[in-house]
Amino acid sequence: MMRVNVPQAGAGGTPVSGLVRSDFIVRERVSSQGLGDRGHVPYPVADPDNPANVMTVRDKPGGERQPIDRTQWGFGRLENGEIVPDRGMVYLRGGFDPHRIYEVVYESENPGIAGLGLVAIRDAVSTLKHDGAAELAVSADAFERAIVFGASQSGRLVRTFLYDGFNADERQRRVFDGAIPHIAGGARGSFNNRFAQPSRASWSFFYPSAIFPFMSREQTEPAWGECEGCGGLTDGLLAGIAPEHMPKVFHTNSSNEYWRSTAALTHISLDAQDVPPLDNERIYLLAGTQHGPAAFPPRIGQGQLPANPNQYSWFLRALLVALDAWIADEVEPPPSSYPKLADGTLAALGHLKFPDIPGVSTPGHIEPVAGLDFGPGFRTDGVATIEPPTIGPAYPLRLPQVDADGNETAGLRSPDLAVPLATYTGWNLFNSAAGPENELVSLLGAYIPFAATADERERRQDPRPAILERYAGRDAYIGGVTQYSTGLVDQGYLLAEDVPEVVRRAAAHWDALVPDGE
């Protein structure tokens, strides 16, 4: 892994202290747990005996926190029944219960200045682009333009980079000419605040990632929390960027980002109205996909259903070419393609028309994204004084509508979706061994293949037509995939050179589902 060691605030002088919050969920009973997310280096507790240090437990993200008696836990780890002091770990007598949310709030000191990571990106790219680098044998005219692509966590970093104003260097030159924040939803991240925890994402709760503003255009969040009495906060992701520093931006998201509550907020207002993208941006839903496509044949992991293998890399390849042509030659890229409220392709959870497929449970509730108040000044100086944050009003939750097969009707629909052999979702519920069976598995979608024949469909009582009821045979299916893929090429969403591989994969999919001779 590549990392940067940055100076510490307060090191060598007056200590800089502040609140740190660490939450975690264990999958099996353990006695000790690190305070750093996913094993990353934690912020150590300043004073393990400070009575202000607290640990709570709850069963749901929005559930009531239950304090754990201070005599039952501490900072350290249990080894062979003995407590070993460790300022980066916590232990609980009797062990942590699986699938519950534990949260520790404590004070730490002298954090690294995390925002210097954004400075390093800005200065390295700007130097290479505008000045060259003799140390790397790169001349000043080696590069004409720069595009940044970030997926998931790094996609949220790209959004933070733009929002925080880093696309202008210290000499007021534009850094990136184009940006693709991919599968980032409407979120940013904990990349540029005191005691930042950049690794926190959807498996953590109420960190400064899914926070206003979500869309690029300016809109006003009604007054509450730290802005209460101010008349509301008006802001937009790209609102603070001067025209000469503005990049062209493609926002690409899987269906999973909608089911994780933030993607729709990039194109609907806080009062649930469609809002068009800016002239310099495009929005694309990669319909019927999960966060990162599963391998084929897919398997069952933490979910009740096999993971979603609907591939979207073809779209990303074509869109990158289109973005570069837009920057270099002002060639208009393919139109945005995403679900909208006005045409019914974007809807509330209760209005989705998912078919009743035997053996398939559907989500009955999703925890919506809500306003978070980390204390006065957090938005301007990045210092949290309220942990956990005060929870404000919920933002609208809207999801892509589906057809009679359960496949999404809007967005960039791959051949797998448009000439289907299965239902592909952006959601999957936990199986009993992995978590609560009514909760979504983070980042996963699902794959529910059609029956091969009418007899098999009738035995299953599956409402979806069988494969051989849809297509006259293998050749007819492959012909449909080829024709649809050619249409995508004509529209600019697929590269011609990728069509043979798309067709090859479709043929392999047919062969995996339909018995020989059928």
Protein architecture, described:
This protein has helices spanning 116-131, 153-163, 255-259, 313-329, 378-381, 415-418, 454-460, 467-470, 474-491, 499-513, and strands at 17-24, 30-34, 54-58, 66-67, 73-79, 82-96, 101-109, 147-151, 178-182, 219-221, 233-235, 248-254, 281-286, 346-347, 370-373, 390-394, 399-400, 422-425, 446-449. It has a four-stranded antiparallel sheet, with no helix packed on it. A four-stranded parallel sheet has the order 8-9-12-13. It is of the alpha+beta class. The protein folds into three domains: 17-109, Immunoglobulin-like; 116-294 and 313-394, no CATH class; 399-513, no CATH class. The chain contains ten helices and 19 strands. The protein is globular. Helix 9 (474-491) runs antiparallel to helix 10. The model has no long low-confidence stretch (mean pLDDT 95).
